[in-house]
Design brief:
Elements lengths: L5 H7 L5 E3 L5 H9 L6 E3 L10 H7 L2 E3 L6 H16 L2 H9 L17 E5 L3 H12 L3 E6 L7 E2 L12 E4 L13 H6 L5 E4 L8 H9 L5 E4 L19 E3 L11 H18 L14
Parallel strand pairs: 1-2, 2-3, 4-5, 4-7, 5-6, 7-8, 8-9, 9-10
Helix pairs in contact: 4-6
Length: 288
């Protein structure tokens, strides 16, 4: 069933067995989902599902599939771009070009070669970031729920934060990860280190981050996500020279998203019709 507007969507909602509503605003999607008493499977291209009514899905026995891994290439490219932007002072280079000023020295001289990087949440996105950075010669350590060789467990990373030049956060947004980076974690980081967040804004205590930036303890931050979104124009994060805000664009910085999303949906639709297990199904208790 297709719909062309709000009223038609809400009228059709009670008949829905399968729904994919990524192209409409979340409040309207939530209103429609509430009316879908017969819903059995909900699909989204988003990797994070914290904005969906997971409790409702759980009570009604609805299967949820997400876009896990679909954004891995785009987000990993953004992470490397952000690191190089900060390491080379690229913001200053662009501004010099705007002024038509020829710089005689690079504003940034850091290299990724030999940099020690902690990737907190080394799933599909974090794993791809790690592979990219290894090509640059960085030393990458991942944090996983079930660590493999060379990885850290979810309870081990805080004790060694001071070893790393870069900390990249790509964890799912759950009750366990809310405010997992706060005053204590920033204080434990290496002086001059940089933090990058590609998870959710709620994973960071932004007041604590600002304090760590303003004190000079942290070298900088690259925030693809903030709390709230959009970030209000008067928020102090906008004014910090060593804070880069990319407006939750990393996963959208690809021209293949809908092709990938459609292919995944159609593959799962065939499995659904055949009574086979769906791929990329979310654990509603864990939230990812």
């Amino acid at each position: 069933m297709w719909f062309s507007g709000r009223e038609q969507l809400l009228a059709l909602a009670p008949r829905a067995e399968i729904a994919w509503l990524d192209m409409i605003e979340p409040p309207l999607a939530a209103e429609a989902i509430a009316r879908m008493a017969g819903l059995r499977w909900y699909n989204t291209m988003s990797a994070g599902v914290d904005w969906l009514p997971l409790d409702l899905f759980r009570r009604r026995g609805v299967m949820l599939t997400n876009g896990s891994g679909m954004h891995a290439q785009a987000v990993a490219e953004y992470a490397v771009m952000g690191m190089l932007t900060m390491a080379k002072g690229w913001r200053a280079v662009v501004r010099a070009q705007d002024r038509r000023e020829w710089l005689m020295e690079s504003p940034g001289k850091r290299e990724l070669l030999g940099a020690r990087v902690l990737v907190v949440g080394a799933g599909e996105i974090g794993g791809r970031i790690a592979r990219f950075l290894q090509v640059f010669g960085a030393e990458v350590t991942g944090v996983r729920r079930h660590p493999g060789p060379g990885d850290l467990g979810r309870d081990d990373w805080r004790a060694v934060l001071g070893r790393f030049d870069w900390v990249i956060i790509v964890v799912p947004s759950t009750s366990e990860t809310a405010r997992m980076f706060g005053e204590a974690e920033f204080a434990a980081m290496k002086p001059g280190a940089n933090v990058m967040n590609f998870a959710r804004g709620s994973v960071l205590d932004q007041d604590a981050l600002l304090a760590a930036i303003d004190s000079g303890h942290l070298g900088g931050a690259f925030l693809d996500v903030t709390d709230p979104e959009p970030l209000p124009a008067g928020h102090p994060l906008w004014a910090r020279e060593n804070v880069h805000i990319s407006m939750h664009l990393s996963g959208r910085a690809q021209d293949a998203l809908f092709a990938r999303g459609s292919a995944r949906f159609l593959g799962n639709l065939r499995r659904y019709a055949a009574g086979e297990p769906l791929e990329h199904r979310v654990d509603l208790d864990r939230g990812y």
